[in-house]
Write a structure and sequence with these properties.
The complex is a heterodimer. By secondary structure, chain A is mainly α. Chain A is 86% helix and 0% strand. In chain B, β4 and β5 form a beta hairpin. The two termini of chain B are 23 Å apart. The chains are: A mainly alpha, B alpha/beta.
């Protein structure tokens, strides 16, 4: 009897823990919002985080964007040429990158590169009592440490996404025009006529902004609530990558379905 | 500071079932006890870093247990805490670690902050390490830097977690003298967690000995004269043969540490 009921109990426990976690995340978000409007403004810390999360991610974003654009160019050309529609390569590469791949892949890359680093850094500060040290100095760690990191993630995500898209378009151009012999003007004009600034470009940036909020919150929350041990830091880092990546993909569906972006 | 029937547990592990004790204002109180007896937890409870399951903890007349985190920040302005492992910000130099609370909470100029930091570092015997990162310090130096940060805002209450562990004898003496002087000249209330029996016996006004089931309070002389075998065996074992034989000194006079303008 106990064995039959056990899975139901486990499921209930998981559901309660999930709701409890969501509640804590909501409170944590409110703390960040409150810290945002509480002086002093941490401009220096914010700029430092922009550098750490944004500038230090430039190489991985550029290289990945270029590679994805080249693959898209190659696959797109080989498919389109079957239907005699290779002149639409610019539109295919552009729309794919701008509407979906740019924001999503950037968010996944930023999660692996910057999100995990954020969780590990805050988690280490928890484990070494640095956050408790701040509290004892009457300094709110959410104000000093967490908020600049979360807001910097929010700020850099659209920028990194835009950079990824530009690199991807260049990659598609290199393959389509340089390798496959497509006319450069045709590639660009196809791209220009297919992409709508309001629906596609602004929508893409909005999507990236949402992913920035998501990744920033999850990374800082996981680090902040990590167990004060090296195992706890490791678990926080892993869970940041897993939870943030899955959340990005799930939210991507809902944003696309509900907002049509 | 007063604890009233405080119950504290971490998960299944009960640290205090019903702890009641007091720490007098302006005095040096030392907490002794075995590993895991809850010495550091008492300091964290006073600072509101952990909350008990039941009971009341009074700090300067206020029960801190029901206080919100925001109200707790106001209480903490009266407190300074030296953590066992230092808890210095590892991305800042020692100088910046000490300057940090002053930059956050005062309107002092950078020159004034530098003077304060230099004075505190000199007081703990570390005047030439301001540029180093915490990761470049030895364990003993880390402790002294942490103590310097804890005292730099001149707290009314100083909480010290194992200030003497990992220190060489000269540094131990220096820190002991500093603590005694701060207490005597500026009336700083001190709560010190320590395993160093000779220092404890010299500097403490009161001692709280955390023994299983029943903590024992008393002055150093009372504990020394105690016939309770748990007390005598704890003091002997913790002190070791050499330390146990050491005659207790009078509290050290302490060296004047640039006491102008109400500083130590």
């Amino acid at each position: 009897m106990v064995t039959r009921v056990q899975p139901v109990g486990d499921l209930g426990f998981l559901a309660i823990r999930f709701v409890d976690d969501l509640g804590k995340l909501a409170v944590f978000t409110l703390q960040i919002l409150f810290a945002l409007v509480t002086p002093p403004l941490r401009v220096g810390a914010f700029v430092t985080e922009i550098f750490k999360l944004g500038v230090l991610s430039l190489v991985i974003i550029c290289v990945s964007g270029l590679a994805v654009g080249m693959v898209l160019g190659l696959q797109g050309y080989n498919t389109l040429v079957r239907f005699g529609a290779e002149n639409s390569l610019g539109a295919v590469v552009g729309l794919s990158l701008i509407r979906e791949l740019g924001p999503v892949l950037t968010a996944l890359l930023a999660t692996g590169r910057a999100g995990s680093a954020t969780a590990a850094e805050i988690g280490t500060m928890v484990a070494t009592e640095q956050l408790d040290g701040l509290r004892m100095m009457s300094i709110d760690p959410v104000h000093l440490i967490v908020t600049p990191k979360a807001t910097a993630m929010l700020a850099v995500m659209p920028l990194l996404s835009a950079l990824f898209i530009v690199c991807g378009l260049c990659g598609g151009y290199v393959v389509g025009v340089g390798l496959m012999g497509l006319d450069g003007g045709t590639y660009v004009s196809s791209l220009q006529s297919a992409v709508d600034f309001h629906d596609d470009v602004l929508g893409s940036l909005l999507k990236a902004l949402c992913f920035g909020v998501l990744v920033g919150l999850i990374a800082t929350y996981r680090g902040y609530t990590s167990a004060p041990t090296s195992e706890g830091v490791s678990a926080a880092t892993t869970s940041t990558v897993v939870v943030a990546s899955v959340s990005v993909l799930i939210f991507d569906y809902f944003i696309t379905a509900l907002w049509g972006v | 500071m007063r604890f009233e029937t405080v119950r504290m547990a971490f998960g299944e592990r009960i640290v205090f079932e019903s702890l009641s004790c007091g720490f007098a204002r302006g005095k040096i109180s030392v907490i002794l006890g075995g590993s895991g007896s809850g010495k550091s937890t008492i300091l964290k409870l006073i600072g509101g870093l952990v909350r008990p399951q039941a009971g009341a903890i009074f700090v300067d007349g206020d029960d801190v247990v029901p206080l919100s985190e925001r109200r707790m920040y106001e209480v903490r302005r009266k407190l300074g805490m030296m953590f066992q492992a230092g808890a210095l910000l590892d991305s800042l130099s020692v100088f910046d670690n000490l300057a940090f609370p002053l930059r956050e909470h005062t309107k002092l100029s950078e020159a004034e902050i530098a003077a304060e930091v230099h004075e505190c570092l000199t007081a703990v015997g570390m005047s030439n390490v301001g540029d180093l990162l915490p990761g470049q310090l030895s364990g003993g130096m880390l402790k002294r830097a942490a103590l310097a940060r804890a005292i730099i805002r001149k707290p009314a209450v100083l909480l010290c977690d194992e200030p003497f562990s990992g220190l060489d004898p000269a540094s131990t003496k220096r820190i002991e003298q500093l603590l005694v002087r701060m207490n005597r000249d500026f009336g700083v209330t001190m709560l010190v967690v320590s395993h160093h029996i000779p220092s404890t016996m010299r500097m403490a006004n009161r001692i709280l000995l955390l023994l299983p089931h029943a903590p024992i309070e008393g002055s150093p002389n009372e504990l020394r004269a105690s016939a309770d075998p748990r007390v005598t065996s704890f003091l002997t074992e913790e002190a070791g043969p050499a330390d146990a034989a050491e005659e207790p000194d009078e509290p050290p006079a302490g060296r004047a540490l640039h006491a102008k303008g109400g500083r130590w």
